[in-house]
Design brief:
Shape: elongated
Helix content: 40-55%
Number of strands: 13
Distance between the termini: 71 Å
Length: 622
């Protein structure tokens, strides 16, 4: 006996829904396996699958919508079986796209702590060499296994279930109308997430105080497609009116009337800015971290002024460079250095040194076009850019470029020959994922954390040799060294998510022959920001007001001790007594410290909301 036609139609729609849902489950499971160690409470895993159903159903229904409409047209107009190839073609394109997203998302999350996004794609497209340099054998093996399993499951699900259910059955007009109305109602409800005032968004599936558990619940493909449709013309931090935002943040911005301590012996010192790639406070004993990883840098901290509670503005190099050189905060999902017409309008510290006839230079073992560093340097007063292309092919390299000790040797030679005074930037390279070293790993290489410790140790040893040789130069006594990390890191602890301030806790210290004796050996234990480097370097050589709106001088006598941090999906604020982290996708406080009552927490978050609303508006206006 033949089944009623309407049952065949429903069976087809359910089979097609099942196809997409199986792929979503596969992606979620691959993510789970890849990040198993990050799940503090394993009981959350089941809830992640259950809560994630809402976004899974929404995206599946998005893809069902077009075949559903065509199916109704077939029943009403064509009234006969049609070639199944249109459905296969329609299905194949997103299936392949989703496979690519899955294999890219997992290593990206391990490194960045956030899922694949438009920003990650744009950065990857612009820096293919940098992306490939971060890939190791383990990632390739996991990706190969993942993609094979993905397509095997997709093939058998589609041909074993969908193809068998996709049968044409003749039906009368009234039944077609019922199918259409019912199907449209169900699809609309699932796509939108219900009939309430608010449309579906990732916060709907958040359920845990563990960020990774929430990220497991969020459908990777849904969030990615949603992010790709965002526009930089729309401020994602629009929490309040412009007037209210400005009123809230004015008290936390620097004042031109601030009095600054003079810590230098001279007005026109040589300045060496050392940007450490991904060095986090947890590898510095002087900052309360592990012992034996950075003995040289710890020593220089004790020789100079050490800011023990410094925080980076963001989680990636492109934003760290802008924070240090231009005193401009992170813009979350955007990166101003990627927009050359915008970053050209930013003020930067290189400009003041160039205007004072300093010799200016930038040294980096990688490709300086990475993240548009080269264009940024040349358009902001840096006369000489030395990178990977300036070294012979026989020079020692890792996957990212020339080893730091080779670059340091070139830099010392050039500084000897440069006219004085000079302003020179040394941006280290080796302490970057995948943490490759040609030679022995001081702490082994069984885990990424140990490899990170080893490359951090290499960086410390290299800088120790660099500084000790510099101390023998005639120009050392007239030189100030400023050392700061470009951003924090998940390693070596592997327990601080992007909402946690310790993820952004970085070294920041100043030493050298040009530092006044009474300032040597000082330990400053109040909160400061990476952004503050810009105004500090400006004030070292200029009496003009700093052009950096968000940057305090590190040596301001009376200042607010506050730091803001930001990633693609989180932001936070740190003061001497309190810290609060906010999850943008979840729309909730994800971390708090020293906050005893909700009104204080809300007050801090409100300041951070107003701050980033203003920052993004400034980004748009550049």
């Amino acid at each position: 006996m033949n089944k009623p036609a309407w049952r065949s139609h429903i069976l087809f729609l359910l089979s097609y829904f099942l196809y997409w849902y199986v792929l979503f489950l596969f992606d979620r499971t691959a993510f789970l396996i890849s990040n198993w160690s990050k799940f503090e409470d394993k009981s959350d895993i089941l809830y992640s699958y259950l809560y994630g159903i809402r976004l899974d159903a929404s995206l599946a229904c998005y893809f069902i919508a077009l075949p559903f409409i065509f199916y109704i047209i077939q029943l009403l107009v064509i009234k006969k079986p049609v070639s199944p190839w249109w459905l296969r073609g329609y299905t194949l394109v997103p299936t392949v796209l989703f496979a690519l997203i899955t294999i890219v998302n997992n290593p990206l999350y391990e490194s960045w702590g956030e899922k694949i996004s438009k920003r990650a794609i744009l950065l990857g497209a612009g820096t293919v060499g940098g992306v490939t340099s971060s890939i190791d054998l383990g990632m390739l093996i996991f990706a190969a296994i993942t993609v094979v399993l993905y397509f095997v499951i997709a093939h058998y699900t589609y041909h074993g279930i969908v193809v068998r259910a996709a049968k044409y059955r003749n039906q009368n007009w009234s039944s077609i109308l019922v199918v259409f109305v019912t199907g449209a109602f169900v699809l609309f409800a699932f796509i939108r997430g219900g009939f309430g005032r608010a449309t579906l968004n990732p916060s709907a599936v958040y359920f845990s105080d563990n960020t990774t558990s929430n990220h497991l619940a969020v459908n990777t493909y849904w969030a990615f497609l949603k992010d790709m449709m965002k526009s930089a013309k729309k401020n994602p931090y629009r929490f309040m009116s412009e007037e209210e935002a400005q009123q809230i943040i004015n008290p936390v911005l620097p004042k031109t009337s601030d009095t600054v301590e003079n810590v230098l012996r001279m007005d026109r010192p040589n300045v060496v800015l050392i940007l450490l790639e991904g060095m986090v406070a947890q590898v510095f004993e002087e900052l309360g971290g592990e012992k034996g990883i950075t003995p040289n840098l710890d020593k220089y901290m004790r020789e100079g002024v050490n800011f023990t509670r410094a925080y980076s503005a963001a989680d990636r190099s492109d934003k760290g460079m802008i924070a240090v050189m231009s005193g401009f905060p992170s813009q979350g999902t955007e990166s101003i250095i990627q927009y050359i017409p915008k970053h050209e309008k930013l003020p930067a510290i290189g400009q003041i040194y160039d205007s004072l006839k300093y010799s200016t230079s930038f040294y980096h073992g990688g490709q300086s076009q990475f993240y548009n560093f080269k264009s940024y340097m040349f358009t902001h007063g840096i006369e000489r850019v030395v990178d990977n292309a300036d070294f012979d092919l026989h020079e020692k390299r890792n996957s990212w470029g020339v080893y730091d000790h080779v670059v340091a040797e070139r830099m010392l030679q050039d500084l000897d020959e440069d006219k004085k005074p000079f302003f020179s930037i040394f941006y280290t390279l080796v302490n970057h994922e995948p943490y490759n070293l040609d030679g022995g790993y001081k702490f082994g290489k069984k885990t990424k954390a140990d490899m990170y410790r080893s490359t951090a140790y290499y960086t410390d040893t290299m800088i120790g040799n660099f500084v000790e040789r510099a101390k023998k130069k005639g120009w050392y006594d007239d030189t100030i060294f400023v050392v700061v990390s470009d951003h924090g890191n998940i390693y070596p602890n592997e327990k601080y998510g992007l909402e946690h301030p310790k993820r952004y806790h970085i070294p920041l210290f100043i030493f050298g022959g040009a530092l006044k004796e009474e300032w040597k050996g000082r330990k400053m234990e109040q909160v400061v920001s990476q952004l503050d480097v810009a105004t500090t370097l400006w004030n070292f050589v200029s009496d003009k007001p700093s052009p950096f709106k968000y940057s305090f001088d590190l040596f301001t006598r009376s200042r607010l001790h506050v730091a803001f941090y930001n990633s693609n999906s989180t932001f936070g604020i740190v003061t001497n007594e309190q810290a609060v982290g906010y999850d943008v996708l979840g729309g909730k406080v994800a971390y708090k410290e020293g906050v005893k009552i909700d009104s204080q927490k809300d007050s801090l978050i409100r300041i951070a909301k107003g701050y980033y609303q203003e920052v993004f508006k400034d980004f748009q206006n550049y």
